[in-house]
Protein backbone atom coordinates (compact mmCIF):
# COMPACT_ATOMS: atom_id res chain seq x y z
CA UNK A 1 0.00 0.00 0.00
CA UNK A 2 1.25 3.45 -0.99
CA UNK A 3 0.85 6.37 1.45
CA UNK A 4 0.42 9.93 0.14
CA UNK A 5 -0.34 13.33 1.58
CA UNK A 6 -2.55 14.41 -1.35
CA UNK A 7 -4.04 12.28 -4.12
CA UNK A 8 -5.70 14.18 -6.98
CA UNK A 9 -8.10 12.27 -9.21
CA UNK A 10 -8.03 13.83 -12.67
CA UNK A 11 -5.20 15.48 -14.62
CA UNK A 12 -7.27 18.11 -16.41
CA UNK A 13 -7.25 21.85 -15.72
CA UNK A 14 -8.76 21.44 -12.23
CA UNK A 15 -6.41 18.68 -11.11
CA UNK A 16 -3.31 20.44 -12.44
CA UNK A 17 -4.16 23.79 -10.82
CA UNK A 18 -4.98 22.07 -7.52
CA UNK A 19 -1.65 20.20 -7.54
CA UNK A 20 0.37 23.34 -8.23
CA UNK A 21 -1.47 25.30 -5.54
CA UNK A 22 -0.99 22.53 -2.95
CA UNK A 23 2.72 22.40 -3.75
CA UNK A 24 3.11 26.15 -3.28
CA UNK A 25 1.16 25.85 -0.01
CA UNK A 26 3.90 23.63 1.37
CA UNK A 27 2.97 20.03 0.51
CA UNK A 28 5.14 18.23 -2.05
CA UNK A 29 3.94 14.62 -1.56
CA UNK A 30 1.29 14.85 -4.29
CA UNK A 31 0.12 12.23 -6.78
CA UNK A 32 -2.12 12.96 -9.79
CA UNK A 33 -4.04 10.03 -11.28
CA UNK A 34 -5.20 10.49 -14.89
CA UNK A 35 -7.03 7.88 -16.98
CA UNK A 36 -5.98 9.30 -20.37
CA UNK A 37 -2.51 9.00 -21.93
CA UNK A 38 -1.61 12.66 -21.37
CA UNK A 39 -2.27 15.47 -18.93
CA UNK A 40 -4.56 18.35 -19.88
CA UNK A 41 -7.97 16.71 -19.89
CA UNK A 42 -10.66 17.94 -22.26
CA UNK A 43 -8.60 21.02 -23.16
CA UNK A 44 -6.45 18.90 -25.47
CA UNK A 45 -9.29 18.62 -27.97
CA UNK A 46 -10.52 22.22 -27.61
CA UNK A 47 -8.31 23.76 -30.30
CA UNK A 48 -10.42 26.93 -30.61
CA UNK A 49 -9.28 30.11 -28.89
CA UNK A 50 -10.99 32.08 -26.13
CA UNK A 51 -9.27 30.48 -23.12
CA UNK A 52 -7.18 32.39 -20.59
CA UNK A 53 -8.65 35.87 -20.99
CA UNK A 54 -9.32 36.14 -17.25
CA UNK A 55 -6.41 34.10 -15.94
CA UNK A 56 -3.58 35.13 -18.26
CA UNK A 57 -5.03 38.30 -19.84
CA UNK A 58 -4.44 36.83 -23.30
CA UNK A 59 -6.35 34.61 -25.69
CA UNK A 60 -5.17 31.00 -25.84
CA UNK A 61 -6.36 27.75 -27.38
CA UNK A 62 -7.28 24.87 -25.09
CA UNK A 63 -3.97 23.01 -25.56
CA UNK A 64 -2.02 26.24 -25.00
CA UNK A 65 -3.90 26.89 -21.76
CA UNK A 66 -3.30 23.32 -20.55
CA UNK A 67 0.39 23.55 -21.47
CA UNK A 68 0.88 26.45 -19.03
CA UNK A 69 -0.13 24.14 -16.16
CA UNK A 70 1.47 20.94 -17.48
CA UNK A 71 4.81 22.77 -17.73
CA UNK A 72 4.51 23.89 -14.10
CA UNK A 73 3.76 20.33 -12.96
CA UNK A 74 6.92 19.16 -14.72
CA UNK A 75 9.01 22.01 -13.31
CA UNK A 76 7.85 21.23 -9.75
CA UNK A 77 8.41 17.48 -10.26
CA UNK A 78 4.87 16.70 -9.13
CA UNK A 79 4.32 12.98 -9.62
CA UNK A 80 1.54 11.68 -11.86
CA UNK A 81 0.38 8.39 -13.31
CA UNK A 82 -1.20 8.26 -16.78
CA UNK A 83 -3.56 5.63 -18.16
CA UNK A 84 -4.54 4.91 -14.57
CA UNK A 85 -8.19 4.37 -13.80
CA UNK A 86 -9.52 5.02 -10.29
CA UNK A 87 -12.17 2.42 -9.54
CA UNK A 88 -13.03 3.18 -5.92
CA UNK A 89 -12.66 5.69 -3.11
CA UNK A 90 -13.42 4.67 0.47
CA UNK A 91 -14.70 6.84 3.27
CA UNK A 92 -11.38 6.47 5.10
CA UNK A 93 -9.59 7.89 2.03
CA UNK A 94 -8.23 4.78 0.35
CA UNK A 95 -7.95 5.26 -3.42
CA UNK A 96 -8.11 2.04 -5.46
CA UNK A 97 -6.78 2.40 -9.00
CA UNK A 98 -5.41 0.20 -11.76
CA UNK A 99 -3.18 0.37 -14.81
CA UNK A 100 -1.45 -2.04 -17.18
CA UNK A 101 1.97 -1.80 -15.54
CA UNK A 102 1.19 -1.97 -11.82
CA UNK A 103 -2.15 -3.74 -11.84
CA UNK A 104 -4.36 -2.81 -8.88
CA UNK A 105 -2.98 -0.03 -6.67
CA UNK A 106 -4.12 0.80 -3.12
CA UNK A 107 -3.18 4.33 -2.04
CA UNK A 108 -3.88 5.66 1.46
CA UNK A 109 -4.26 9.42 1.24
CA UNK A 110 -4.35 12.05 3.97
CA UNK A 111 -6.43 14.18 1.61
CA UNK A 112 -8.15 13.58 -1.73
CA UNK A 113 -9.03 16.20 -4.33
CA UNK A 114 -11.80 15.21 -6.73
CA UNK A 115 -11.17 16.73 -10.18
CA UNK A 116 -12.73 14.19 -12.56
CA UNK A 117 -14.55 16.73 -14.73
CA UNK A 118 -17.91 16.04 -16.37
CA UNK A 119 -19.50 13.99 -19.13
CA UNK A 120 -22.16 14.60 -21.78
CA UNK A 121 -25.73 13.39 -21.62
CA UNK A 122 -26.12 10.57 -24.19
CA UNK A 123 -29.04 9.78 -26.48
CA UNK A 124 -30.36 7.28 -23.96
CA UNK A 125 -31.25 10.16 -21.63
CA UNK A 126 -33.51 11.78 -24.26
CA UNK A 127 -35.99 9.05 -25.24
CA UNK A 128 -36.19 10.10 -28.90
CA UNK A 129 -38.20 7.57 -30.94
CA UNK A 130 -36.58 5.82 -33.88
CA UNK A 131 -33.99 3.16 -34.69
CA UNK A 132 -30.37 3.24 -33.56
CA UNK A 133 -28.53 4.11 -36.77
CA UNK A 134 -24.93 5.26 -37.01
CA UNK A 135 -24.24 8.98 -37.35
CA UNK A 136 -25.46 10.05 -33.88
CA UNK A 137 -22.75 11.54 -31.67
CA UNK A 138 -22.43 13.69 -28.61
CA UNK A 139 -20.86 17.02 -29.52
CA UNK A 140 -17.74 16.25 -27.49
CA UNK A 141 -17.22 12.93 -29.27
CA UNK A 142 -17.52 14.68 -32.63
CA UNK A 143 -15.02 17.29 -31.41
CA UNK A 144 -12.51 14.55 -30.60
CA UNK A 145 -13.03 12.90 -34.00
CA UNK A 146 -12.37 16.16 -35.85
CA UNK A 147 -9.66 17.77 -33.71
CA UNK A 148 -7.71 14.75 -32.45
CA UNK A 149 -8.40 11.87 -34.84
CA UNK A 150 -8.85 13.85 -38.05
CA UNK A 151 -12.23 12.39 -39.07
CA UNK A 152 -15.25 14.36 -40.31
CA UNK A 153 -18.32 12.68 -38.77
CA UNK A 154 -20.70 13.76 -41.54
CA UNK A 155 -21.65 16.24 -44.26
CA UNK A 156 -25.22 17.28 -43.40
CA UNK A 157 -25.57 17.99 -39.71
CA UNK A 158 -28.39 18.82 -37.29
CA UNK A 159 -27.48 19.72 -33.71
CA UNK A 160 -29.89 19.13 -30.83
CA UNK A 161 -29.22 21.36 -27.85
CA UNK A 162 -27.45 24.70 -27.64
CA UNK A 163 -24.77 23.94 -25.09
CA UNK A 164 -21.39 25.57 -25.67
CA UNK A 165 -19.75 22.46 -27.14
CA UNK A 166 -22.58 22.10 -29.66
CA UNK A 167 -22.31 25.76 -30.67
CA UNK A 168 -18.54 25.50 -31.08
CA UNK A 169 -18.91 22.31 -33.16
CA UNK A 170 -21.44 24.04 -35.42
CA UNK A 171 -18.68 26.46 -36.40
CA UNK A 172 -15.97 23.80 -36.50
CA UNK A 173 -17.90 21.50 -38.83
CA UNK A 174 -18.80 24.43 -41.08
CA UNK A 175 -15.12 25.34 -41.38
CA UNK A 176 -14.35 21.72 -42.32
CA UNK A 177 -16.89 21.83 -45.17
CA UNK A 178 -19.98 20.29 -43.58
CA UNK A 179 -23.42 21.89 -43.82
CA UNK A 180 -24.94 22.55 -40.40
CA UNK A 181 -28.64 22.87 -41.15
CA UNK A 182 -29.83 24.08 -37.76
CA UNK A 183 -29.38 24.01 -34.02
CA UNK A 184 -32.56 23.03 -32.14
CA UNK A 185 -33.11 24.02 -28.51
CA UNK A 186 -36.17 22.80 -26.60
CA UNK A 187 -36.08 25.76 -24.19
CA UNK A 188 -37.01 29.32 -25.20
CA UNK A 189 -33.42 30.42 -24.55
CA UNK A 190 -29.96 29.09 -25.38
CA UNK A 191 -27.95 27.08 -22.89
CA UNK A 192 -24.64 28.50 -24.16
CA UNK A 193 -22.69 31.69 -23.77
CA UNK A 194 -23.93 34.68 -25.76
CA UNK A 195 -20.53 35.13 -27.40
CA UNK A 196 -20.67 31.56 -28.75
CA UNK A 197 -24.11 32.16 -30.27
CA UNK A 198 -22.76 35.22 -32.07
CA UNK A 199 -19.38 33.82 -33.12
CA UNK A 200 -20.43 30.25 -33.92
CA UNK A 201 -23.98 30.59 -35.30
CA UNK A 202 -24.76 34.18 -36.31
CA UNK A 203 -21.42 34.71 -38.06
CA UNK A 204 -22.03 31.60 -40.20
CA UNK A 205 -25.78 32.06 -40.79
CA UNK A 206 -26.62 28.86 -38.91
CA UNK A 207 -30.26 28.97 -37.69
CA UNK A 208 -30.95 28.62 -33.96
CA UNK A 209 -34.46 27.29 -33.45
CA UNK A 210 -35.54 27.98 -29.92
CA UNK A 211 -38.52 26.06 -28.47
CA UNK A 212 -37.87 23.25 -30.97
CA UNK A 213 -36.91 19.62 -30.48
CA UNK A 214 -36.44 16.40 -32.43
CA UNK A 215 -39.38 14.02 -32.22
CA UNK A 216 -38.09 11.17 -34.41
CA UNK A 217 -34.87 9.82 -35.89
CA UNK A 218 -35.14 8.28 -39.38
CA UNK A 219 -32.82 5.72 -40.90
CA UNK A 220 -31.80 2.13 -40.22
CA UNK A 221 -28.10 1.68 -40.97
CA UNK A 222 -27.18 5.38 -41.10
CA UNK A 223 -29.29 8.32 -39.97
CA UNK A 224 -31.16 9.79 -42.96
CA UNK A 225 -33.30 12.52 -41.43
CA UNK A 226 -34.90 13.84 -38.27
CA UNK A 227 -38.35 15.20 -37.54
CA UNK A 228 -38.18 18.63 -35.93
CA UNK A 229 -41.15 20.18 -34.14
CA UNK A 230 -41.95 23.30 -32.16
CA UNK A 231 -42.84 22.75 -28.49
CA UNK A 232 -45.48 24.46 -26.38
CA UNK A 233 -45.02 26.14 -23.00
CA UNK A 234 -45.03 22.71 -21.34
CA UNK A 235 -42.24 21.51 -23.69
CA UNK A 236 -44.63 19.16 -25.49
CA UNK A 237 -44.17 18.87 -29.31
CA UNK A 238 -46.86 20.53 -31.43
CA UNK A 239 -47.82 17.91 -34.05
CA UNK A 240 -48.81 20.34 -36.81
CA UNK A 241 -45.40 22.06 -36.71
CA UNK A 242 -43.41 18.90 -37.53
CA UNK A 243 -40.82 19.22 -40.28
CA UNK A 244 -38.77 16.48 -41.98
CA UNK A 245 -35.10 17.52 -42.18
CA UNK A 246 -32.61 15.36 -44.08
CA UNK A 247 -29.18 14.82 -42.52
CA UNK A 248 -26.48 12.19 -42.21
CA UNK A 249 -25.31 13.29 -38.75
CA UNK A 250 -26.99 14.29 -35.50
CA UNK A 251 -24.97 15.90 -32.72
CA UNK A 252 -26.32 15.97 -29.18
CA UNK A 253 -25.39 18.93 -27.00
CA UNK A 254 -28.00 18.52 -24.31
CA UNK A 255 -26.10 19.19 -21.13
CA UNK A 256 -23.14 18.11 -19.05
CA UNK A 257 -23.19 16.04 -15.86
CA UNK A 258 -20.43 16.02 -13.21
CA UNK A 259 -18.54 12.71 -13.28
CA UNK A 260 -19.54 11.61 -9.80
CA UNK A 261 -19.79 7.82 -9.66
CA UNK A 262 -16.69 7.70 -7.44
CA UNK A 263 -18.05 10.52 -5.29
CA UNK A 264 -21.26 8.59 -4.67
CA UNK A 265 -19.40 5.35 -3.95
CA UNK A 266 -17.43 7.16 -1.25
CA UNK A 267 -20.71 8.18 0.41
CA UNK A 268 -20.23 11.91 -0.19
CA UNK A 269 -23.41 14.01 -0.09
CA UNK A 270 -24.54 15.11 -3.57
CA UNK A 271 -26.37 18.32 -4.47
CA UNK A 272 -29.43 17.19 -6.50
CA UNK A 273 -29.41 20.43 -8.53
CA UNK A 274 -25.75 20.32 -9.65
CA UNK A 275 -25.25 16.54 -9.40
CA UNK A 276 -21.91 17.44 -7.81
CA UNK A 277 -20.89 17.17 -4.15
CA UNK A 278 -22.08 19.69 -1.59
CA UNK A 279 -19.07 21.72 -0.41
CA UNK A 280 -18.24 24.57 1.93
CA UNK A 281 -16.17 27.64 1.05
CA UNK A 282 -13.00 25.59 1.58
CA UNK A 283 -14.39 23.27 -1.16
CA UNK A 284 -14.43 20.44 1.38
CA UNK A 285 -17.11 17.78 0.88
CA UNK A 286 -19.14 15.99 3.55
CA UNK A 287 -16.11 13.76 4.23
CA UNK A 288 -13.38 15.71 6.06
CA UNK A 289 -10.20 15.89 4.00
CA UNK A 290 -11.93 15.23 0.66
CA UNK A 291 -12.16 18.28 -1.59
CA UNK A 292 -13.80 18.88 -4.98
CA UNK A 293 -13.20 21.43 -7.71
CA UNK A 294 -13.88 22.12 -11.38
CA UNK A 295 -16.63 20.50 -13.41
CA UNK A 296 -16.94 17.53 -11.05
CA UNK A 297 -18.34 20.05 -8.57
CA UNK A 298 -20.57 22.00 -10.97
CA UNK A 299 -20.34 22.73 -14.67
CA UNK A 300 -18.43 25.95 -15.37
CA UNK A 301 -18.60 28.31 -18.34
CA UNK A 302 -14.91 29.25 -18.35
CA UNK A 303 -11.83 27.18 -17.59
CA UNK A 304 -10.31 30.29 -15.98
CA UNK A 305 -12.85 29.94 -13.16
CA UNK A 306 -12.06 26.22 -12.90
CA UNK A 307 -8.39 27.08 -12.31
CA UNK A 308 -9.22 29.70 -9.67
CA UNK A 309 -11.51 27.29 -7.84
CA UNK A 310 -8.99 24.44 -8.03
CA UNK A 311 -6.27 26.65 -6.59
CA UNK A 312 -8.42 27.16 -3.51
CA UNK A 313 -9.01 23.40 -3.20
CA UNK A 314 -5.29 22.70 -3.45
CA UNK A 315 -4.42 25.32 -0.86
CA UNK A 316 -7.06 24.11 1.61
CA UNK A 317 -6.06 20.45 1.10
CA UNK A 318 -2.46 21.39 1.94
CA UNK A 319 -3.64 23.23 5.05
CA UNK A 320 -5.62 20.13 6.07
CA UNK A 321 -2.47 18.01 5.76
CA UNK A 322 -0.59 20.48 7.94
CA UNK A 323 -3.51 20.80 10.43
CA UNK A 324 -3.63 24.57 9.90
CA UNK A 325 -7.30 25.08 9.03
CA UNK A 326 -8.80 27.60 11.42
CA UNK A 327 -12.54 27.07 11.95
CA UNK A 328 -15.27 24.49 11.55
CA UNK A 329 -18.13 26.95 12.13
CA UNK A 330 -20.27 27.49 9.02
CA UNK A 331 -23.09 29.65 7.70
CA UNK A 332 -25.61 28.04 5.35
CA UNK A 333 -25.96 29.53 1.85
CA UNK A 334 -29.53 29.30 0.53
CA UNK A 335 -30.60 29.47 -3.12
CA UNK A 336 -33.62 31.77 -2.99
CA UNK A 337 -36.17 32.91 -5.57
CA UNK A 338 -34.89 32.68 -9.15
CA UNK A 339 -31.62 30.98 -8.18
CA UNK A 340 -31.20 27.34 -9.20
CA UNK A 341 -28.17 26.56 -7.04
CA UNK A 342 -25.20 28.09 -5.28
CA UNK A 343 -21.64 26.85 -4.83
CA UNK A 344 -20.57 26.67 -2.07
CA UNK A 345 -23.47 25.63 0.15
CA UNK A 346 -21.69 26.76 3.32
CA UNK A 347 -19.39 29.67 4.19
CA UNK A 348 -16.64 28.90 6.71
CA UNK A 349 -16.44 31.36 9.61
CA UNK A 350 -12.81 32.35 9.00
CA UNK A 351 -11.94 35.90 10.04
CA UNK A 352 -8.68 35.77 8.05
CA UNK A 353 -10.60 35.72 4.74
CA UNK A 354 -11.78 39.19 3.66
CA UNK A 355 -14.34 37.86 1.17
CA UNK A 356 -15.81 34.62 -0.15
CA UNK A 357 -17.00 34.03 -3.71
CA UNK A 358 -20.41 32.45 -4.28
CA UNK A 359 -21.13 31.27 -7.82
CA UNK A 360 -24.68 30.55 -8.91
CA UNK A 361 -26.97 29.98 -11.87
CA UNK A 362 -30.47 31.34 -12.30
CA UNK A 363 -33.42 29.13 -13.20
CA UNK A 364 -34.67 31.12 -16.21
CA UNK A 365 -34.18 34.29 -18.21
CA UNK A 366 -34.59 37.46 -16.15
CA UNK A 367 -34.36 41.02 -17.45
CA UNK A 368 -33.62 44.06 -15.28
CA UNK A 369 -33.78 42.08 -12.05
CA UNK A 370 -31.79 42.70 -8.88
CA UNK A 371 -29.37 40.19 -7.41
CA UNK A 372 -29.89 40.38 -3.65
CA UNK A 373 -27.90 38.97 -0.75
CA UNK A 374 -29.72 38.62 2.55
CA UNK A 375 -28.02 37.85 5.85
CA UNK A 376 -30.74 36.44 8.12
CA UNK A 377 -33.38 38.27 6.02
CA UNK A 378 -31.50 41.59 6.15
CA UNK A 379 -30.29 42.95 2.79
CA UNK A 380 -26.53 43.34 2.52
CA UNK A 381 -26.32 43.61 -1.30
CA UNK A 382 -28.83 44.66 -3.96
CA UNK A 383 -27.63 45.27 -7.51
CA UNK A 384 -29.50 45.34 -10.81
CA UNK A 385 -28.43 43.20 -13.76
CA UNK A 386 -29.67 43.93 -17.28
CA UNK A 387 -30.08 40.25 -18.11
CA UNK A 388 -29.56 36.97 -16.30
CA UNK A 389 -29.67 33.61 -18.12
CA UNK A 390 -29.02 29.99 -17.06
CA UNK A 391 -26.24 29.74 -19.66
CA UNK A 392 -24.13 32.37 -17.89
CA UNK A 393 -22.76 31.61 -14.45
CA UNK A 394 -22.98 34.53 -12.02
CA UNK A 395 -20.97 35.29 -8.92
CA UNK A 396 -21.18 37.55 -5.87
CA UNK A 397 -18.82 38.33 -3.02
CA UNK A 398 -19.68 37.83 0.66
CA UNK A 399 -17.64 40.41 2.56
CA UNK A 400 -16.22 39.53 5.95
CA UNK A 401 -17.34 42.87 7.38
CA UNK A 402 -20.96 41.89 6.72
CA UNK A 403 -20.50 38.70 8.76
CA UNK A 404 -18.68 40.52 11.57
CA UNK A 405 -21.60 42.96 11.83
CA UNK A 406 -24.01 40.06 12.54
CA UNK A 407 -22.56 37.94 15.38
CA UNK A 408 -25.68 35.72 15.49
CA UNK A 409 -25.69 35.03 11.73
CA UNK A 410 -27.26 31.73 10.65
CA UNK A 411 -28.04 31.91 6.91
CA UNK A 412 -26.98 33.74 3.77
CA UNK A 413 -29.58 33.84 0.98
CA UNK A 414 -28.98 34.65 -2.70
CA UNK A 415 -32.12 35.57 -4.62
CA UNK A 416 -33.53 37.66 -7.48
CA UNK A 417 -35.95 40.55 -7.00
CA UNK A 418 -37.79 42.77 -9.45
CA UNK A 419 -37.08 45.97 -7.49
What would you say this structure looks like, in words?
The chain has 419 residues and is of the alpha/beta class. The protein has 3 domains: 187 residues, FAD/NAD(P)-binding domain; 133 residues, FAD/NAD(P)-binding domain, CATH 3.50.50; 73 residues. Helices cover 21% and strands 34% of the residues. It contains 8 helices and 25 strands. Strands 1, 2, 3, 4, 5, 6 and 17 form a 7-stranded mixed beta sheet that branches. Helix 1 packs parallel to helix 2, helix 3 crosses helix 4 and helix 4 runs parallel beside helix 5. The radius of gyration is 22 Å and the shape is globular.
Q: Top keywords for this entry?
A:
419 residues, alpha/beta, FAD/NAD(P)-binding domain, five-stranded parallel β-sheet, 25 strands, globular
* Major sheet: 7 strands, mixed
Domains (count): 3
Beta content comes to 25-35%
- Radius of gyration, rounded? 22 Å
Total strands: 25
Distance between the termini: 60 Å
Helical fraction equals 10-25%
- Poorly predicted tracts of residues: none
* Helical segment count: 8
* Name of the CATH superfamily of the largest domain: FAD/NAD(P)-binding domain
The secondary structure category is: alpha/beta
Say what the CATH topology of the largest domain is: FAD/NAD(P)-binding domain
Output the CATH class name of the largest domain: Alpha Beta
Report mean pLDDT, rounded to a whole number.
95
The gross shape turns out to be: globular
Supply the CATH architecture of the largest domain: 3-Layer(bba) Sandwich
Amino acid sequence: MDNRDIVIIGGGPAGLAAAISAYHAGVSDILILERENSLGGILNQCIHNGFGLHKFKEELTGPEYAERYVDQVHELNIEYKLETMVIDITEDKHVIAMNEIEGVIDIKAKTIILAMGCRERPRGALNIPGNRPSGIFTAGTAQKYVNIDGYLPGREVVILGSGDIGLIMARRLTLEGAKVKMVCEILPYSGGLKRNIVQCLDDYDIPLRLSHTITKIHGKERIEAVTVAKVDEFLKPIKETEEYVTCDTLLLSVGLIPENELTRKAGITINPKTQGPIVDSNLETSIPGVYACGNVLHVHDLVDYVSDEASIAGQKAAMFVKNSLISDDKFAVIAGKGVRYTVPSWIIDDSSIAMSIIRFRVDGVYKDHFVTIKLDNEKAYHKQKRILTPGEMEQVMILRKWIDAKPELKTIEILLEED
